[in-house]
Amino acid sequence: MRQFNEDTLTAAVVERIQRGTKDERFREILASAVKHLHAFARDVHLTEEEWFEGIKFLTSVGQKCDDKRQEFILLSDILGLSMMIVALNHKAPAGATEATVLGPFFAHGAKEYGYGADLREGATLKGEDVYVSGRVLTTDGKPIPNAVLDIWQAKADGIYDLQTEGEFELRGRVRANEKGEYALKSYKPKFYSVPMDGPVGDLVRRTGNHHMRPAHMHAIVSAPGYQPVITHVFVEGDPYLDNDAVYAVKDSLVGKYRKVDDAAEAKRVGMPNPFIRLDWDFRLAAEAGVKARKKIAASDAIA
Ligand code: BEZ
Ligand code: FE
Question: Is residue 2 domain-resident?
């Protein structure tokens, strides 16, 4: 076959993919991507100059990536694609903690801690002291022993440790105890801007949209025999809860950070008085009964 036009080209490309591609799922994905890309070009009648602009943009997104900066994840987040994929794949079984975006600032290899972890260790910026504690439970409320909570959050200036040259900061892998209880010390999260110093920032500016995320603490919670969950805890009252730049807020993930002014309680938990406290349980669904889909081990969340 030769001599294709805008009405015959898509079918020819799809046919070629389907003929040669052995892996069934890959074949399905690639053929569908081609169909949608061609449809998009036809829909807006894309010119060569415009497509070249698109290629330049994607090139600059790639060039901005390194071992700490993940501009493609940011692009996926800003376009709502990350949350679309979360929505498709993580319909939390009743009672399980809901999932939300991973974001570009997860890192492997954070320091390991036990109950009472102090994630403020070595912090270069102070914030409002917060004590977070709770349990990791099954969907019907039974404790899951020894779960691991991979925790990370931005510093008081809204910048993540990975965005600077320094050491890991305000992050850690916190192991819950035999009774499923965990506790950690950190600073109260604040709202912040997504990184705006790259091509994705330029794109956001061009759309005239804002670039803020409501305050949150990230967590990946995992335990053998349970589906891991990639989630956040947001801060009740945050001004950006209703217009998160990456569409990641869920009502069930908004937590109450309450002020505690009680010297005895502060002493008991090893905090200055007064301090802020968040009581938060995570609930994991059992692995059995989950529809067949790839399981993401916490440590494999990004390669
Ligand atoms: C974050 O929460 O760290 C994040 C998520 C999406 C885009 C930028 C940052
Ligand atoms: Fe974040």
Answer: no
Residues 242 and 150 in one domain: yes
Which atom of ligand 1 approaches the CA of 246 most closely? 6
* 220 is a domain residue: yes
Indicate which atom in ligand 1 lies nearest the CA of residue 154.
3
Does residue 144 belong to any structural domain of this protein?
yes
Residue 21 structural domain: 9-64
**Which residues neighbour ligand 2 (ion) by CB within 5 Å?**
103
Per-residue pLDDT of 97-137, as tens digits, reads 999 999 999 999 999 999 999 999 989 999 999 999 999 99
Q: List pLDDT tens digits, range 152-176.
A: 999 989 999 999 988 899 999 999 9
**Ligand 2 center from residue 153 Cα (angstroms):** 6
State in Å: Cα 193 to ligand 2 middle: 9
CB 43 within 8 A of CB 36: no
Task: Provide the CATH number for the domain around residue 129.
Answer: 2.60.130.10
Q: Report the pLDDT value the prediction gives residue 299, as an integer from 0 to 100.
A: 38
Sheet holding 148-152, edge to edge: 112-113, 171-175, 148-152, 216-222, 229-235, 254-255
Looking at the structure, tell me whether residues 238 and 198 fall in a common domain.
yes
Residues 282 and 168 both lie in one domain: yes
Domain count, the chain: 2
62-69 long-range contacts (CB < 8 A, ≥24 apart) are 64/198, 64/199, 64/200, 68/107, 68/162, 68/163, 69/104, 69/162, 69/163, 69/195, 69/198
